[in-house]
């Protein structure tokens, strides 16, 4: 089947931008992406976008232009960016439009998200009695995982240390300062075993991607990154996902594992063929566990991989080269698109100080959202 | 749907602590100064199902695999109303 190509990428720096709304940051990113693709907004035939806290993505048309295009607002929790790309890619495959945009932006208040029980199909007593806090889910999943697969506290600290190191090399990151090992290891305990500097925080930012077909790229003679696979899965019975109030007798593979498996099957390649990757790192444990769930190592092998520096920019499988969610913060609508933006930069050889050496050819992105949804992409440079 | 009796004793499958007050609609959000740290865990019942629950904190340290016992408790809303709920605590003896 003909591949989908990404021909334009745009980002508004993540972090805090006082005086600029989330929507404005989305419009900024959209214009950057149009400029990168050398297209006008009126060229875009369909758009998909999302935000959690900054209103309807379609409102961007007030500033970009009222061209009348179909514009679909969507929301899949923290996986919103991945879902926008999934929808836009499938619109291109179907022939619905020549050019499609995936747009995401957000501007969140400080502090942890306060998820609604009702909106997630969970009885209200669960949140009223203090059992519906996302940090608890991360901690409970990780605590059990560390017990089952011998992951050390030291490895948790090293994942955070890498995130800040990589963020310091990324001019668009929120956290641009290196945080020393000791400071991470001694930071406030939030939810055992996870400490303050091991989490990403809600933030602000915008990201946009422009897609077209491979045929069109050849006609235009444009530079492009190609989607070898784009897959999305929701939870199935028995998997351990966020906001679960009980777990099944036999725990089954997660939405992430299922999306990853489908993506590798459809691309016809394996995890060993990936040169650079983005893995949802809402906190350090998520990066560790998602590495195995996506197929990049066996459960438990993360301990030696990380201790040996293999996930650093200079390692065998560089993970979250832009600092990931931990150094960039998480504007929900934009976060999944930021991951793809970074992989495009890496495959185009434009990642500056954090460029993975020896011209990476194949990249991977994974995003995870509540209440149990994952989107995965495999991208190639040619 | 049918009722099933899971029993009252299980083993601790995973645990964490809630060290910061959750945001609304958690009952105690209005008076943060009264917030008391609580535990959260999954208890694996003899049938294999794992139930998410608040954990009672005492001087005992949590350890995966330790026996936990079901207790009833009451949470107080800011308006004075109470909500009966359940918690698990480390089984003694």
Query: Structural class of the helix and strand makeup of chain A?
Result: alpha/beta
Name the average pLDDT of chain B. 88
The CATH homologous superfamily of chain A is termed Thiolase/Chalcone synthase
- Alpha carbon gap, first and last residue of chain B: 36 Å
Structural class of chain B: mainly beta
Mean pLDDT, all residues of chain A: 96
Query: What portion of the residues of chain A fall into strands of 2 or more residues?
Result: 15-25%
Defining traits:
heterodimer, A: 382 residues, alpha/beta, 9-stranded mixed β-sheet, two-stranded antiparallel sheet, B: mainly beta, 5-stranded mixed β-barrel, 45% strand
Brief account:
The complex is a heterodimer of chains A (382) and B (93). By secondary structure, chain A is of the alpha/beta class.
What does this structure look like?
- With 382 residues, chain A is α/β, with parallel strands linked by helices.
- Chain A has a single domain, classed as Thiolase/Chalcone synthase (Peroxisomal Thiolase, Chain A, domain 1, 3-Layer(aba) Sandwich).
- Chain A is 35% helix and 19% strand.
- In chain A, helix 3 packs across helix 13 and helix 6 (153-167) packs across helix 10 (284-293).
- Chain A starts with a strand and ends with a strand.
- The mean pLDDT of chain A is 96.
- A 5-stranded mixed barrel of chain B has the order 1-2-3-5-4.
- Chain B contains no helices and 5 strands.
- In chain B, 29% of the residues are buried.
- Chain B has strands spanning 9-18, 38-44, 50-55, 67-76, 82-90.
- The interface between A and B is medium-sized, with 34 and 31 residues.
